[in-house]
Amino acid sequence: VQLAESGGGTVQAGGSLRLSCAASGSVFRLTAAWYRQAPGKQRELVATIASGGSTTYADSVQGRFTISRNNAANTMYLQMNILKPEDTAVYYCYVAGHWGQGTQVTVSS
Questions:
Q1: How many of the other CB atoms lie within 10 Å of CB of 44?
Q2: How far from the centroid of its chain's Cα atoms is residue 7's Cα?
Q3: CA distance 91 to 89
Q4: What is the edge-to-edge ordering of all strands in the sheet holding 75-80?
Q5: Beta pairing class for 32-37 and 98-99
Q6: Confidence grade of residue 29 (pLDDT, cut at 50, 70, 90)
Q7: What pLDDT, in 10s, does the model give residues 32-72?
Q8: In a 10 Å sphere around its CB, with 0-12 CB exposed, 13-18 middle and 19+ buried, how is residue 62 labelled?
Q9: Buried b (16+ CB within 10 A) or exposed e, 85-104
Q10: CB within 10 Å: which end of the chain, N or C, has fewer?
């Protein structure tokens, strides 16, 4: 399985971005997740989506981020709204033991 994230970039605080994670196979029927890693910090779990569709979020992004998927397109998304400077990180998608290469999100104040 190969995963490829896209959609990162630089945005001002309060702005929005939508990340995508495209898979080489039909893996997003499994539980999948978005993680992020800020400079000098450990990688942290941001959001998960289970095979049944239920979702969970880190407290720091609850109410601002939305995880979703399109199984037919083998793609998972992370809609990020009301972005804050502390959301600056490299964002990774994860499923079935596989990681993407990451996409940089930078939020300026």
A1: 12
A2: 10
A3: 6
A4: 3-6, 17-23, 75-80, 65-70
A5: unpaired
A6: confident
A7: 999 999 999 999 999 999 999 999 999 999 999 999 999 99
A8: exposed
A9: eebbbbbbbbbeeeebebbe
A10: C
